[in-house]
Design a protein that fits this description.
mainly alpha
Length: 345
Amino acid sequence: MAGVQKLDRRGPQEQIAARPPARRALRPRLELLAAAALFSTGGAAIKSTHLSGWPVACLRSAIAAAALLLVLPQVRRRPTRRMLGVAACYAATMILFVLANKLTTAASTIYLQSSAPLFVLLLSPWLLGERIRRGDLLSMAAIALGLALLVTGLEPASATAPEPLRGNLLAALSGLTWALTIMGMRSLGRGAGGGEADGVAGSETAGASGSEAGEAGAPRGDGIVAAFWGNVLAAAAALPMSLPPPAVRAADWLVIAFLGVFQIGLAYFLLTRGIGGVPALEASLLLLLEPVLNPLWAWLVHGERIGPRVLAGGALILAATLLNSWHDARLSATERRAAEPAGAG
């Protein structure tokens, strides 16, 4: 019939390849930026609820798990023991991120969790058999200094940060659990024959940002399955601490629904779509939008201010992580070029 469009029977990859080159290059970058922006809203949104940390962590992860199950079919796989081990570390990170945000500032929480690369560098020789390179030592020193500034740069207690010291300690612990998650993702990626591990973005996330954030790898395959089960485990672990059920106001339900559906579910969906079309270093740079925006939202919504020590410590950690990612990218490119002649023969 005239006026009826023909059905496009090409597969998704063929349709993407048929798009103009400029559009193909822009789309994944916009998706990564959108994912980072959604991840960055976690601190301000968590502080907007009148519930305590445990029920927020429980409901947020439960809704996020349901959202991931609906939008990412690849998570509907039976997890292996290794996946569940990584999921347990990820679940701990999810819970600690929420609890820390309820006790200290959003800036301190996100920056302290972003210290995960320090723990990765310290633990990877024993857990992954990776050598510490000379260039890593400078990154380790800068991140350690930033960590010290953050822990000691306590802001006065406030309505949105009633226990800064306790919150900072929980946030620093989340940096360790996130580092274990990153290394677990690497291990899963290698086991699947994928070289670098699939990463996860956001405070629960990956990328150089490190927010409830690690490595800028694609959160697909085993990695995204582990992330899904991490949300399931986080909801289950936080449930006993959330009983008896608190009174939840309509506004609280809206915030928690936003956290689960958009701040995690939609953000991961955009991440999985976009990260495969962007080089790892550029993905790390784009995902740095998360720790940059996170304190900004908390300031706009709650009036939280960033002290000079917190600002200096966060800047040191992010700069060291960025430089380390750049160094890794250069080293990988050099190694690939060196291997090309041998492979061609």
